[in-house]
Amino acid sequence: MKKIASFLLVNFTLLLSSCSGGNDSNDYTVVDLYPNVTSKFSGKIDLNNLANYANQTIPAYITKDNTVGNPITDKGATLGRVLFYDTNLSSNNTISCSSCHIQANAFGDVAIASIGVNGTTTRHSMRLANSRFSNEAKFFWDERAATLEVQTTQPIQNHLEMGFSGTSGDGSISILIAKLQKIEYYKELFKFTFGSETITENKIQLALSQFVRSIQSFDSKYDTGRALAANDNQPFTNFTAQENQGKNLFLTPPVFDAAGSRTGGGVGCAVCHAAPEFDIDPNTRNNGIIGVLNGTGIDITNTKAPSLRNLVKQDGTTNGPMMHTGNLETLQTVIGHYGTINLAPGNTNLDPRLRPNGFGQKLNLTATEVNALIAFLKTLSGTNLYVDSKWSSPF
């Protein structure tokens, strides 16, 4: 009898351990402790066999990572996935994070301004792919969020976007939390992830940011070539001559004359968008785009940019317009913008790298160089990002 009692005690202890939230192993008990999750997300989420978010393959040449104090777990990212796609996070149950950050568009939007519960966004929605792999830890175009964790709940608390601002007749985020606390599958998911049914803004931030950081793309033509090369400066054996020319132009700094006109070298995109992450330099200032989406005046505060990976899909179409104003719709127009930088009145925040010797840069690109740059930028797009079910809607 003592042996039987001991056996039952051990197995009961293991059962409690499996749902405590402290162990991210996939070796869960077969006893279904989460019936509402099982029912709601049948065929999409299996808590006994979670998708791999925590241990995805990251190439050895990728070294940048803005994860601080909130490592990705399978449990946390699974909860984050549900939160990301749930319209319950908006005041009128019509908008989710995924409404503006769409998997088919590298988690960006083809609309210039995304639709919210009380109007449209004031800046174009930024692509989220590879958000983790950057030295820049701040988020939003104007870097007003110190971390991704802080960023995740700000759209929820925006009057225009998701409507829990606590102003203009909106309820506050505490109203949202009370709303989610009444939803049975959230009681179970928060218990599963954190060991308690209690929902807080911090827990929402932790889960959403784990899911967003899990969205990665390293299966591009560029990655195939980079894996075979000692460094980025070597010609990639899988690239065409045009693609290698574009890579060289991208990486090599330009040589300017006294009037800011390029006389040699490359075009130096990598000075601000360094390979192999192609993230934005944290010290970058305004890039010469100072327009606003709504209203009049200028906006010179925008100094953040998404990774240049997955600017386009495999068919060459863009994942939506580019820049915070969404005013540049093709890679050619983006290159054209940087080809001739105008010193606009009032732009006191223009990056000094775009005004050599005090003049707006003139790259004097030939048609051959423009086409080579475009060819190279297209090599930065993968395929799995758009189809992997672990980043798709669980509803």
TrEMBL record:
Taxonomy, superkingdom: Bacteria
Entry GO CC: cell envelope
Keywords (A to Z) from UniProt: Heme, Iron, Metal-binding, Oxidoreductase, Peroxidase, Signal
Subcellular location: Cell envelope
Entry-linked InterPro entries: Cyt_c-like_dom (IPR009056), Cyt_c-like_dom_sf (IPR036909), Cytochrome_c_Peroxidase/MauG (IPR051395), Di-haem_cyt_c_peroxidsae (IPR004852)
Positions in coiled-coil regions: none
Keyword Ribosomal protein: no
Stored SUPFAM superfamilies: Cytochrome c
Record's signal peptide: 1-22
Molecular function GO labels: cytochrome-c peroxidase activity; electron transfer activity; heme binding; metal ion binding
Gene3D superfamilies: Cytochrome c-like domain
Xref: Pfam families: CCP_MauG
Domain Cytochrome c: 75-184, 241-381
The keyword Heme appears for this protein: yes
Identification of the protein by name: Cytochrome-c peroxidase
The organism of origin for this protein: Flavobacterium nackdongense
